[in-house]
Amino acid sequence: MHKHVLPLLTAALLAGCAQKATAPTAATPPPAPAEPATQPVAPTNWRNEAEEFLKDYSGKYQQLYTQSSEAEWRSNTHIVAGDSSNAAATARANEALAAFTGSTVNIERLRQLLGHESELTPLQVKQLKTALYNAAASPQTAGDVVKLRIKAETQQTEKLYGFTYKYQGKAVTTNDLDRVLREEKNPQKRLAAWEASKAVGPTLKDGLLNLRALRNKVVQGLGYPDYFTYQASDYGMTRQEMMELVRKINQELRPLYRELHTYARYELAKKYGAKQVPDYLPAHWLPNRWGQDWSALVDVKGLNLDPILAKKGAEWQVKQAERFYQSLGFPALPETFWTKSSLYPLPTGATYKKNNHASAWHMDLDQDVRSLMSVEPNTEWYETTHHELGHIYYYLTYTNPDVPVLLRGGANRAYHEAMGSLMGLAATQKPFLAGLSLVDPKTQTNQTQTLLKEALNYVVFIPFASGVMSEWENNFYADDLAADQLNARWWQLAKEYQGIVPPTARGEQYLDPATKTHINDDPAQYYDYALSYVILFQLHDHISKQILHQDPHATNYYGNKEVGQFLRDIMYPGASADWRALLREKTGEDLSARAMVDYFKPLMTYLQQQNKGRKYTM
Ligand code: X8Z
Ligand code: ZN
User: pTM above 0.85?
Assistant: First the structure.
């Protein structure tokens, strides 16, 4: 998740063709009539009306938005058990923003102006629709429910990130638990770490059920049937269309996933000394709390970044990511990024906690950009650092005179997630690493193992994101999933899509989906990430072949200004661009898993050979 990216509503619009909305001025005023007559009423100039309204609205919006961001920032970086002052301040700031965006006066005015759509500029229409979309998250007509939602969201955040995880009798961080899951070979210890990571779930159950009701009720105020539909509408899609799209993506990658799944079952059974190869993967065997990334299973000789990064340190990773963006022609990060961000884990003994998940913030919709991370020097954080800076550079690039405040968001939410992940992929390829002397270019490295490691990251993610997460949240928000079926449904989906089962029975006293932060604080949007991977491979395919003329599996973007220009062109218009048109214009293709499937094709043959004679269970 990146925080606070403004939503986008679709509207056919020509980006970069903002017409001036000023009315032609008459050269000489007409002579005054000799005698008072019934004056014909001048026809309303709707462009002028819209321009004036948007100017006022945007100014006020930006101000309230900044105050809300500041309060949220504090609530996510200084969590003190039992201290309610942050929560109260955040609720106040969010209520003020909500009261403004959802005010009946504003909504009526927006509707009135949009009633004259054909007389307005496309850019105006797009801004007005965005404002109306924002209004649906907090309509004044549902004022009490909005207040309750705001309060419940702040409380849920505090519970989630204020939680103390315990492993082997000691308080630990999620970074600690992740390390155990990546490195520990003893299955009993793995099981203990996995269970420890799920301990927060039950504490979030009442809050999540409450939030479902409130989120649904709030958007129903402006006519959306449920919260999932509301979020999908940001892409100009219905809930059904979104589900069809993610199911299709999942199907296209399923044959490869099936091979990876079979391969992993046999390899892990060997690794953990299991007498029998299980039909489904026990969740605690995998190097990630949700089984969404298995890349730590493979160590490619000569390309293992962990020891190199450990020597360089956490700070180096963030600086290195900045250097990479700068090498493409992006500017240095503003000084305040470094002074105001919260980039590293809290010191041991800190009396407060912080949000343990990475995010990027556009605090004032202007130059105040920050990231909230807990960077440690390892491959996972190296990629995440590139991911977050992708959001930051997107913010900075669409903060320009051609993009009004209300449209400072991604072409769609998935684009926003794609940029930095693309850079994360680029920053792990061998020619890139060799160019920076991080690895020895003369060392032979195994290409198949490299591709396998990448597949265990990018391909393995798809059934989790487009399958488990999206299906569960669709059921939760739109199908009113029963309160006594929440965990059962989660594991049913994990088995069906990921081929993963819980190590021991996980009854309804647990709430394993709620251990995924997005379920609580980035609701009904996780397909963004599945779509972002699809888009990133489309962009990478184009960049490799058309700009760099390099094999997509072995590229070096570093220092290439043309690549930078290509990315900046995508970022520049922000949400004033039509995301479909933009993709077609930039890659010549519609949204499709074609490039991603192509990229991993060479791996199919290898895996089929490895899996010969093995039992497939998916
Ligand atoms: O949540 C994120 C980002 C948020 S800005 C770090 N990601 C997903 C996740 O961690 O579940 C990035 C990829 C998947
Ligand atoms: Zn992100």
Answer: yes
